[in-house]
Amino acid sequence: MRAERGLWIFTLRREPPPFIHPHGPRARPPPPPGPAFAPLPSPPRPPIRPAGERRGSPRPGSPRSAAQGAGGRGRREDGGGGRRWLYRHVQQEIMKLSLDVAVAYLRRKLLFTENGVDLQVCTSKNPTCCTKKMEELYQTAAKQDIQQLLQTSSATLKFLISRNAAAFQETFETLIRLAENYTSTLFCNAYRNMAAEATTRVQEFFTDVGLFIFGTDISTEEFVNRFFDTLFPVVYNHVINPGLTDISLEYAECLRMARRDIRPFGNVPKKAIGQMGRSLLPSRTFLQALNLGIEVINTTDHLHFSKDCSRALLRMQYCPHCQGLTLSKPCMGYCLNVIRGCLANMAEVDLHWRGYIQSLEELSSAMSGTYDIEHVLLNFHSLVNDALLQAHINGPELSEQVNKVCGPPVRKPTQSPGCSFDQNKDNQGLEMFSRDSEETLSSRRKEFISHLRLYRAFYGGLADQLCGNELAAADGLPCWNGEDFVRRF
After folding, report:
1. Is the pLDDT of residue 25 over 70?
2. pTM for the whole thing?
3. What is the 3-state secondary structure (H, E, C) of the chain?
């Protein structure tokens, strides 16, 4: 075997017949077997051409000169030209075979189809690299992309509402705590002998206030009446008819039941019911409306797309990929047609959303003025003080009425303890909600409503927002029209 210009030539070597000795086959061992293919001897190296001799001119006595003299007989005998032709021919065949194999491999690996006969949506006259399975995956991706864009576009609005809902709830909790502190401080300062018992009733009352504001199904009239019902035995024992010891539990229960008929506090309970109802109910509704807005946004962020919408989204976003147009974007008009069709239900949401924001504006206005929750809660202790003063003034008359209903007072041997309330509690909160503070609850509501007005047409312009900011190609740029890549739609 020898190499000539990169081509390996093999020749078959004939083996001589085995030698048989006349005295027996074992007298002389046979020679070792040789290789079936043996390389040809290397040709002698050509002599060095003298300086000045032109390349291509035959030298005297050379095989080439002799071949030319013999009319080409030396070329046939030498065989060098035939080997070169064979090498070029083999090389061309190998290149042609490699190209065919590569094309077949790419067709098989990329699942290349001429016109996508098995596709349902991304059909095209142009060659495509998509299969039915890829089309299904693209359709899922298209729906996920739109849902992610919906969530991104509404994230600012959702954050605005949820942040303010949490802030208003925290503010209401602080107001309730401060109003309780004010009322308990009143008893410790002016009615210290009954402060311990009265503080318990105050705590129960403001617990009911918080439950009502945050959604519990109770009546303001019910818990206001319950507060004054439970307060009357304490006031009778220490203000109207004080004694060395407290009245018995049975007698206190009789007083509690008779309070609404005897009316020891005059019109104060009725006034408190009116103020609480007209201030707490709008605040409760306001919080519920904010939570409702968050629910609406969560619902629209996870829309269920119809089959036609899913196919349209697939054709708009991913069918260009099947033709190798992975960076293309849909034309603006085409994008608006598809997205508006998918968000057709948003037209109804838009109408209700505008009404929702208008209702919040009206509700915010109703929470201001005389029946502002901040004003009502932080001045509740004044109503309680008026009630106690009226009971003290009408003490003799009230004693006679009580004796007629419950009889003379029955007292127990123990006496209630004095005030144990910490009057320095929540001093930081008192400063926060000072009436001289620049930022009040009313100003916070107005600021929130002013920001929310900017989203009045959010759902009506959602398709334009998605296409203009994210999906569609900019004006003047080539874009996808659903069938082909064009300059303008």
Report:
1. no
2. 0.68
3. CEEECCEEECEECCCCCCCCCCCCCCCCCCCCCCCCEECCCCCCCCCCCCCCCCCCCCCCCCHHHHHHHCCCHHHHHHCHHHHHHHHHHHHHHHHHHHHHHHHHHHHHHCCCECCCCCCCCCCCCCCECCCHHHHHHHHHHHHHHHHHHHHHHHHHHHHHHHHHHHHHHHHHHHHHHHHHHHHHHHHHHHCHHHHHHHHHHHHHHHHHHHHHHCCCCCCHHHHHHHHHHHHHHHHHHHHHCCCCCCECHHHHHHHHHHHHHHCCCCCHHHHHHHHHHHHHHHHHHHHHHHHHHHHHHHHHHCCCCCHHHHHHHHHHHCHHHHHCCCCCCECHHHHHHHHHHHCCCHHHHHHHHHHHHHHHHHHHHHCCHHHCHHHHHHCHHHHHHHHHHHHHHCHHHHHHHHHHHHCCCCECCCCCCCCCCCCCCCHHHHHHCCCCCCCCHHHHHHHHHHHHHHHCCCCCCHHHHHHHHHHCCCCCCCEECCCCEECCC
